[in-house]
Amino acid sequence: MGRTGFVVQRLLLLIPVAVGVTIVVFFMVHLIPGDPAATILGIHATPKAIALLHQQWGLNRPLASQYWLFLDRLLHGNLGQSIFYGGSVTSLILSHLPPTLWLLSYATVLTVLISVPLAVLAASRRDGIRDHVVRAVPLVGLGMPPFWLGFLLIYAFAISLRIFPVSGYGSGFTGHLQSMFLPSLTVALALTPVVIRSLRASMLNVLGAEYIVTARSKGVPPHRLYQRHVLRNAVIPAVTVLAINIGFLVGATVIIEQIFAIPGIGQLMINSIFQRDFPVVQGVTLVFAIMVVLVNLLADLSYAALDPRVRFDR
Amino acid sequence: MSAIEVPSVPQGPEPASEPVLVIRAEGRAASRWYRQPALMAGIVILAVVVGLALAAPLITSYDPIAQNLNETLLGPSAHHLLGTDQLGRDTFTRLLYGLRLDLRIGFIAVLLPFVLGTVLGSLAGYFGGGVDTTIMRLVDIVVAFPFYVLIIALVFVLGPGERSIYLAITVVGWVAYARIIRGEILVAKRQDYVTAARSGGLSNVRIMRRHLLPNVISQAYIYGMSDIVQVILAIVTLGFFGLGIPPPTADLGSMINDGQNFLSTHWQLATIPGLVVVLVGLGLSLVGDGLADLLRPGQ
After folding, report:
1. B252 occurs within a structural domain
2. Which of A92, A126, A229, B287 has its CA 20 to 30 A from that of A314?
3. Which of A243, A157, A162, A154 lies closest to A198, judged by CA?
4. Helix, strand and coil in chain A, % to nearest 5
5. pLDDT digit string (tens) for A226-256?
6. Could you tell me the residue range of the domain that residue B219 belongs to?
7. CATH code, B192
8. Which residues of A touch B (CB under 8 A)?
9. Rounded to an integer, what distance in angstroms lies between the CA atom of residue A16 and that of residue A24?
10. Cα torsion for A242, A246, A248, A249, to the nearest 10°?
11. B286 touches chain A (CB under 8 A)
C-alpha cells in the first residue's frame, strides 16, 4: 500500500471514531438521572420552560430520531443555546478557544525545552549520577497533582517574588508570553516526567546502534553526534509519546485554566459545570475530542515527514 | 551482583537441565527483591502511609468532621499537630481520614477498569475478527476524549459521590488494560502450549483463563501500579473542584481547595495535603518500577 493508500485508510478510520464521539456526547444528556430537562433547567424549571426544552431538543421523540436531529444541527455548526451565558454555544466556544490554543502550544514548547536536555544528560552517561538524578524526576513528578503545583508556583513566583502576574491571559504577544508562562510551565512540568522517561529510553536504544559506533570511531565530536545522529532518531518516539499524551495535555489545561483564571474553553467547561449549563459542557467536551483526534491524525501523518524509513504497509 | 549469586548455584553433581535454570531464575528474583534500595524505599513509604491511614482512629481522638467554631485557624501546637482549619477541625485528623478515604477509593477505582479491560482485551486478542474490531473501535472512541475532560463530564452528569467516581474512572480507564492485554494475547496465542491445549479439547474460556491469562497478566499489573497514581490524582482533582465526595467528609482534594484561600496566612492547610499525595505517588511509583524490574527478567 502506498502513501495515498495509508492516508485514505487513516482518514476512513476517522468515520467510526467521529460517529462514536457524537454518540457519547449525545448520550451524556440521557445519563442525567430523572427528567433531563428539569435537571438541566434547575431553578429555572417552570413547567413551561421544561415543555419548551422538551420540544427544542426533541426529548419526546424516539432516541434514534433525537440523535439524528443532534447530528443534523451539529453538521450546521449548531451546538445549541447556552442556558447561563445566553447566545449560541458555538460562538461562545470560538471566543474562548484562543487562550486554550496558546496554553497548549506554549506548554508543548516548554515541555520539549525541559525534557530534551534532561534526557540527553541522563542518556549520555548511563547509570551515572546525572542519570540517577534525572530518573528521580518522574518518580516525584508523576505523583504531583497539577493544580497543587500550579498554586505553589503562583505563591512562589507571583505572590512572593512578584516576577509573573498571578493570573489572567495578558494582552498582546509579549503580554501573553509573560502571563501564560506560569500556567504553561505547570502543564509542561506535569507532562515532562512521561516524556523524559520515553525519550531517555529511546536515546539509549539509538546510542547502542551500530551507526553511532561508526560515527564515534570516525571521530564525530560529541555535540555533533547528538545533534545529527542521536536526537534525530530519538525524536520520532518522542513525537509519538507527545501525541499519545495529547489527551492528558488537553485535560490538564482544563484544570490549569481554572487555577490561573485563563478565559479558555477549559475554564468555560468548569464554570458551565458549576452553572449546570449543560449544552456548553456538551459542546466543550465535543470540541476537546475533536482536538485530540486531529492531533493524533497529524502525528500519524507527520511520521512520513520525520522518518523517511516509515513504510505504509502493515 | 554476580559475585553474590555464586554460592546459590547448585554445586552438586546435578546436570544443569532446564528445571534447575528455572529454580535459579526464581532464586535470583527472590534474593534480589530486598537488595533493591528503590523498591525497599517504596515499600517503606507505602507501609507508613497505609498504616497511618488504617490506624487513623487510634492515632487521633478528634472527629474529622466535628466543627469547633471557637478554635478556627489555630497554628500548629501540641493539641493540634498541624493546627485547625477555618471551621475549627483538626487538620492532622482530617489529613489521616482524607488519606484513608482517597486510598480506599483509589484501590477500588483501579481494580474495576483492570478487570473490565483485561476481560475485553483477552476477548479481542483471542477471538480476533469482528469481536476485535468492535472492541478496538470502542477503544478509539474513549481515547478520543481527554482523560480529565471525560471524567469531569461523567461525574458532573452522574452527580457527585463515590459511585460516580468508580463509574467514570472505569469508563475511561479500561482502554489501556485492554490494549496491553490484547497485544500480549496476540503473541501468546501462537505459542505451542495454546495449540496443545486446544487440540486437547479444552474450551476457549478455560484456555484463556488457565493458560493465556497467567502468562500475560503481569504486564497489566505493571501498568496498574502506575495507573493507580493517576487514579488517585484524578480523585484528588475531582475533590478539589468540588466534584468528588461531598463535604463535610475529609478528602485531600477538598482540603487543598479549602486551604487555598489561606495560603498566605496558613500555608500548611493547602500544602501538606498536596505533599501527602506526592508521597503516596512516590511510594507507588518506586514499588511499581521495582516490580516491573522483577517481572520483566529480560530487561
Report:
1. yes
2. A229
3. A243
4. 80, 0, 20
5. 777 777 777 777 777 777 777 788 888 888 9
6. 35-62+77-295
7. 1.10.3720.10
8. 13, 16-17, 20-21, 24, 28, 31-33, 138-140, 142-148, 151-152, 155, 159, 246-252, 254-255, 258, 269-270, 273-274, 281, 284-285, 288-289, 292-293
9. 12
10. 90
11. yes
Amino acid type, B63: D
**Strand runs labelled E in B109-245:** none
Q: What is the pLDDT of residue B33?
A: 56
Closest chain B C-alpha to A219 CA, distance in angstroms: 31
Q: Do B256 and A152 touch (CB under 8 A)?
A: no
| Count of domains forming chain B | 1
CA distance B191 to B264: 62
Q: Mean pLDDT, chain B, as a whole number?
A: 81
CA–CA gap between residue B151 and residue B157 (Å, rounded): 10
Residue for grid cell 542519570: A131
How far is residue A7 from each of residues A284, B164, B249, measured CA to CA in Å? 28, 39, 52
Q: Which amino acid is at A94?
A: L
Asked whether residue B68 is domain-assigned, the answer is no
Rg of the Cα trace of chain A?
A: 24
Q: How many helices (H) and strands (E) does chain A have?
A: 16, 0
In a domain, B28, yes or no: no
Q: Which residues of A279-309 are buried (b: 16+ CB within 10 A; e: fewer)?
A: bbbbbbbbbbbebbbebbbebbeebeeeeee
Q: With an 8 Å Cβ cutoff, is B41 touching chain A?
A: no
Report phi then psi at A214, rounded to 5.
Answer: -60, -50
Q: Which residues of B234-243 are buried (b: 16+ CB within 10 A; e: fewer)?
A: bbbbbbbbeb
Q: What is the mean pLDDT of residues A169-175?
A: 78
Contact state of B281 with A152 under an 8 Å Cβ cutoff: no
Confidence (pTM)? 0.83
| Interface residue B299 vs chain A (CB under 8 A) | no
